[in-house]
Amino acid sequence: MAKRTSTFVCQACGAVHPRWAGRCDACGEWNSIVEEAAPSAEAPRAQRAGKGRAIDFHDLATHAPDTPRTATGLAEVDRVMGGGLVPGSATLIGGDPGIGKSTLLLQIACRMARGQPTVYISGEEAVEQIRLRATRLGLSDAPVGLAAATNVGDILASIDRADGPRLVVIDSIQTMFVDQLESAPGTVAQVRASAAELIRVAKRRGIALFLVGHVTKDGAIAGPRVLEHMVDTVLYFEGERGHQFRILRGVKNRFGATNEIGVFEMTDAGLMEVPNPSEIFLAERSEQVAGSCVFAGIEGTRPVLVEVQALVAPSPLGTPRRAVVGWDNARLAMVLAVLEARCGVTIGANDVYLNVAGGLRVGEPAADLAVAAALLSSLSGEPVPHDTVVFGEIGLSGEVRQVTQADQRLSEAAKLGFAQAIIPSRRSRRKGAKPFSPALRVTEIGSLADLLPLFGHGLEARRAV
Length: 465
Known about the structure:
Layout: E1 6-10, E2 16-17, E3 33-37, H1 45-48, H2 75-81, E4 90-95, H3 101-112, E5 118-122, H4 127-136, E6 145-148, H5 152-159, E7 167-171, H6 188-205, E8 208-213, H7 226-230, E9 233-238, E10 245-253, E11 261-267, E12 270-273, H8 277-281, E13 292-299, E14 302-314, E15 322-325, H9 329-343, E16 350-356, H10 368-380, E17 388-390, E18 393-394, E19 400-401, H11 406-415, E20 420-424, E21 441-445, H12 456-464
Parallel strand pairs: 4-8, 4-9, 5-6, 5-7, 7-8, 13-17, 15-16, 17-20, 20-21
Antiparallel strand pairs: 1-2, 1-3, 9-10, 10-11, 11-12, 13-14, 14-16, 18-19
């Protein structure tokens, strides 16, 4: 019987199938299965014989030196990376097309090239195109080595040497290919093999490696999750094209904290750092407008204040609309259900629109109370006091639950001039716990019903109708 020389691999999840099918049984994607050459089943001779070199083991008390880091020249990037780039690390950065990934990495490469050898290798653009972008950004005098290449073997031959570069940017990993594989660039096998070869050389030579990854329509990095497992750091570059702000978010970091964010503003001169994002997100906030509430959130270790906007309007449709930008649709549905079931506030027949101003996406449950306040404000026509910040998690029984790092949230609010805050009640006060910031007048509530008196007159009129 002839030996099978090809397999069928799903390009979405990496599952291997014995034959082609229109739909992947593992992840449910349609038309994602591609035929690829089967890998060799023969094990190396040393492994077949059960022989190998003995490895050394160390105890937990062994002292290891601090991880060396190199500043990128952009403080916001250093914050997300945990203090700077680590030699021998591999960083994967993903984002929507045109969001600014190549611009950010070119700025990093040009700033770091003045202190160490740096190369920028593109598989999507010609060298002249990269030069034009650098000229537009005012970085044309930086000593960066540029190349347009897609063959991983050629790239390794150029960087795998003692006097090679200390920083390498690959834009993008989906355009790279390895000669030994017959599959096309961008397939699961090519992406996995190309990344493995580049990471192997980067760790052996102490090269800081940046890999650009394409994203799917759902916003996840294209290809199987194995690529994210192979690298040390995974960054997502987020933002709406209609907004000038961009968010660099760390979702994985072996050398620092995760969920840290860096904020940038897209300008004609490239990406400019925003050292205090709270002031920027609240800069265009209108005073005494119903449906607006300031939420004090935490992104990584950084407190960030953003404006939550809600609009509740009568619906001419049989099924009212629910539109959300920057928050979770499921949590909005939960907050609306709790307001109706536990507080007697009828919103179901209205269209509901929710927006987090500035293009930031909020994922923590602490925004529940701010969303509820914005909804009640829009429904009643009573504005939330302009100098008030709100945060707290809402449970299904209507209770308001405590959230982490409340002191940091309140300190940031006081620093920006807010005078009062509505927060969850601290039911179990620790002995010796410090009081909240004296600059703020803090109102603690235990249930969502305690929030209704703030919008009393408008809500009573609505409920009477």
